[in-house]
């Protein structure tokens, strides 16, 4: 069931979104070579809690961290741990904040030190495809068009789109209906309506689109060991167009 949010509820969701975006921005400012992903997770936890919110990921389905931290060929759902980040790594941070009854959900892939131009271009394409999808996320747009926009942009750039994991509705639950795939056919699928809040989250691979879940039952990795990128925003569909709720500077 898709939950439609009133203008007042969307207003309330800006608070969770602002803290989510702020935590992610803060993560990007502090992340550096030599830091463990566990240390980064602790910093994220402190940011979210000190802003009066609860980390959405912590305890979700038993997840042990406050953020999903996925390095290089890890696509999503990486568990924070003793791994030390080093120059040349790319690190995807995916987190949410829960406050006043609503969640925010956002992700970004950061670079550590010197990263190859090839991988930087993958990150750029992934992030740009997210903003292209947001741009068309308006009342009446079909979900197939959202997916197609992400898929076409990244495939034209020579990358592959992860199929097994998708975006989703966001609200009182972190994961709500509908599913928002990063692939699709133009003119197909249900239409966006006013009051929907969705997370669009392209997961784009340098090599094969095939992924697998590691024995820890969380970490999703590329089958060929090549790097992956992940960018995500929570957005509201309104009469005035899409509102990026997880913009750290949202008014
Ligand atoms: N933003 C992540 C997602 O949409 C949330 C992960 S929390 C976790 O999948 F606990 F499930 F890892
Ligand atoms: Co999400």
Bound heterogens, unique: 2-amino-4-trifluoromethylsulfanyl-butyric acid, cobalt (II) ion
Provide the residue-averaged pLDDT: 98
The percent of residues in helical segments reads 25-40%
In terms of quaternary structure, the protein is single chain
Taking the alpha carbons of the first and last residues, their distance comes to 30 Å
Tell me the overall shape: globular
Radius of gyration: 17 Å
In total, how many beta strands?
17
> Major sheet: order of its strands?
10-9-11-16-17
Main pleated-sheet profile: 5 strands, antiparallel
Low-confidence stretches: none
| Helical segment count | 4
The helix-and-strand class reads alpha+beta
N-to-C order of helices and strands: HHEEEEEEEHHEEEEEEEEEE
| SS strand fraction | 25-35%
Q: Could you please describe the fold and organization of this structure?
A:
With 251 residues, the chain is an alpha+beta fold. It is 29% helix and 25% strand. A hairpin with a 6-residue loop joins strand 9 (167-169) and strand 10 (176-180). Helix 1 (7-30) runs antiparallel to helix 2 (37-50) and helix 3 runs antiparallel to helix 4. The longest helix is centred in the first third of the chain and has 24 residues, at 7-30. The chain is globular. The two termini are 30 Å apart. The structure holds 2-amino-4-trifluoromethylsulfanyl-butyric acid and cobalt (II) ion (CO).
């Amino acid at each position: 069931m898709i939950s439609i949010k009133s203008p007042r509820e969307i207003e309330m969701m800006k608070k969770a979104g602002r803290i989510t975006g702020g935590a992610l921005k803060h993560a990007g400012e502090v992340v550096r070579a030599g830091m463990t992903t566990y240390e980064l997770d602790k910093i994220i936890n402190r940011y979210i809690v000190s802003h009066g919110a609860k980390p959405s990921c912590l305890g979700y389905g038993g997840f042990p961290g406050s953020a999903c931290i996925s390095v290089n060929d890890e696509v999503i759902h990486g568990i924070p741990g003793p791994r030390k980040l080093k120059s040349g790594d790319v690190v995807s941070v995916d987190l949410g904040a829960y406050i006043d009854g609503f969640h925010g959900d956002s992700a970004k892939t950061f670079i550590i030190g010197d990263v190859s131009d090839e991988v930087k271009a993958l990150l750029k394409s992934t992030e740009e495809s997210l903003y292209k999808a947001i741009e068309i996320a308006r009342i009446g747009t079909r979900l197939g068009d959202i997916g197609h926009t992400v898929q076409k942009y990244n495939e034209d750039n020579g990358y592959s789109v992860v199929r097994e994991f998708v975006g989703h509705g966001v609200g009182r639950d972190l994961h709500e209906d509908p599913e928002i795939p990063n692939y699709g056919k133009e003119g197909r699928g249900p239409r966006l309506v006013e009051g929907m809040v969705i997370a669009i989250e392209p997961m784009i691979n340098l090599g094969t689109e095939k992924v697998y879940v590691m024995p820890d039952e969380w970490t999703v990795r590329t089958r060929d060991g090549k790097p992956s990128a992940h960018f995500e925003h929570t957005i509201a569909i309104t009469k005035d167009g899409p509102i990026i709720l997880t913009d750290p500077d949202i008014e």
